[in-house]
Design a protein that fits this description.
Growth Hormone, Chain: A, mainly alpha, about 450 residues, globular
């Protein structure tokens, strides 16, 4: 699975500097990359509905077991997230992307073949999902670092990032809505096949790309080099007066939000009695809030300051999440409509929070640490998705799907105090003021 929102421009030149040239095949190669990832992202969204339904309807798994699938997919970010950054920095990024997506193609291909033959078992599904998750870790690290190899010109680089982000937002909105009718028509096994073909398309387009990265200077691997490199990034983030509260807020939010999103599909099916078509609408509608949040983010930051903008955005998101189980208690179509409203509302807040927190990371992290700061962010955020799924499984087994939804929703409130720490306002103000005439260093 890929995430274009994690893709960020990396421009080391001030505005007045002469822009570097693009790669000779930049536009052709980007079209291939964009096409392949758009198809793959669309296929990924089918899995949001198909995997839990496959586990419950075809394999006879319980809702608590189905919640473990997301745990298996994101567990590798806890196990490999920090190491992957150090490893991929020493490998060709395009080759890493091809290898990672090929592995995902094989993993989901095995799921499809075994399910079609009636030989798939729940724990073999878990194992194959975990293998896919390992590939996702390495793909993400390489994917978010590759685009600057194509576009040296900052404007073209920004346009490329924006188009990839558009593909992700579109797939999040349209994918689940399209998955519902397709699952009703072809069944959950047919939906898995769509994802398999999506990865195949991605691999083909990546192989067709002509541009290759310039060879990097070989660096001697001293004993303990990886541990030292990882430690520097962790120490910087955990001791920083701005980044530490932002990461703490985001980590807490991701943990409890995942309990909600992991439970949502089966909550709609088992508790509200919705059809796959309606479930697709509920899940896909959430993405409609992101562009609204993106548009108001800059204005909030300019008018209120970064600290207040972060706190307000996080509060909007938390209120939206809390409203989801509240509206869901209405039941039926009314509950579904309430869930749609809550999903959109919380994504407005999240869509505003994400670019603001990214801007602060860009302003505060030195260039030589930007990659490792981003690696720490992925390790914490995506790692919490794995733990949140595990907690959702436990909560579902103990108190049911409705209880798991409420625990996750109420738990997101705990992310807010980190943004209200004393002194964060001064830290943000001083950092922004000291760099107000500098070129912003986009990066992730």
């Amino acid at each position: 699975m890929t995430s274009a929102n994690d893709t960020s421009a990396k421009d080391g030149h001030p505005p007045e500097a002469e822009a570097p040239a693009n790669a000779p095949t930049a536009r052709r190669d980007f079209r291939l990359l964009w096409t392949g990832q758009s198809v793959s992202l669309f296929g990924d969204q089918f899995m949001t509905l198909a995997l839990p339904l496959l586990a419950v309807t075809t394999l006879g798994a319980s809702p608590a077991q189905a919640a473990l699938l997301k745990f298996a997919l994101f567990l590798p970010f806890l196990l490999l997230g920090l190491q992957a950054g150090a490893i991929v920095d020493r490998m060709p990024r395009l080759a890493t992307m091809i290898g990672a997506n090929s592995l995902q193609f094989l993993a989901f291909g095995m799921i499809w073949v075994l399910a079609a033959a009636g030989s798939l078992r729940f724990w073999s599904l878990m194992a194959l999902i975990t293998i896919s998750g390992c590939a996702v870790v390495f793909f993400q690290v390489a994917y978010t670092s590759y685009l600057p190899n194509l576009f040296g010109n900052p404007k073209d680089l920004h346009r490329g990032n924006a188009r990839l982000a558009l593909s992700e937002s579109t797939s999040q909105a349209v994918g689940p809505m399209a998955a519902g009718p397709l699952i009703a028509l072809l069944g959950v096994v047919g939906a898995v096949a769509v994802n398999v073909f999506g990865f195949a398309a991605s691999v083909v387009t990546l192989v067709m790309m002509k541009h290759r990265e310039p060879p990097r200077e070989k660096v001697a691997r001293e004993r303990g080099w990886m541990r030292k490199s990882i430690g520097e990034g962790l120490k910087f983030v955990l001791r920083h007066p701005i980044l530490q509260p932002i990461m703490l807020c985001g980590t807490t939010y991701a943990l409890f939000l995942t309990m909600v999103t992991t439970s949502l599909v089966l909550y709609c099916r088992n508790e509200l009695g919705l059809s796959p078509q309606w479930i697709g609408v509920v899940v896909g509608a959430a993405a409609a809030g992101y562009p609204i949040g993106n548009m108001i983010s800059a204005r909030l930051g300019e008018k209120l300051g970064y600290e207040k903008a972060l706190a307000i955005s996080a509060t909007i998101s938390v209120v939206g999440i809390l409203s989801m189980p509240a509206f869901g208690s209405l039941g039926g179509v009314a509950g579904a409509c309430g869930l749609i409203f809550g999903s959109i509302f919380h994504c407005v807040g999240e869509g505003s929070y994400s670019p603001t927190s990214l801007t602060l990371r860009q302003l505060t992290a030195p260039p030589e640490l930007l990659g490792r700061v981003g690696s720490v962010q992925r390790f914490l955020m995506w790692g919490m998705i794995s733990l949140g799924s595990l907690f959702a499984s436990i909560a579902t087994a103990l108190v049911g799907l409705t209880g798991a939804m409420w625990i996750g929703a109420v738990g997101t409130v705990l992310c807010l105090p980190a943004l209200l720490r004393r002194g964060m306002r001064d830290a943000v103000f001083n950092t922004a003021r000291s760099k107000e005439n500098d070129a912003v260093r986009p990066g992730n």
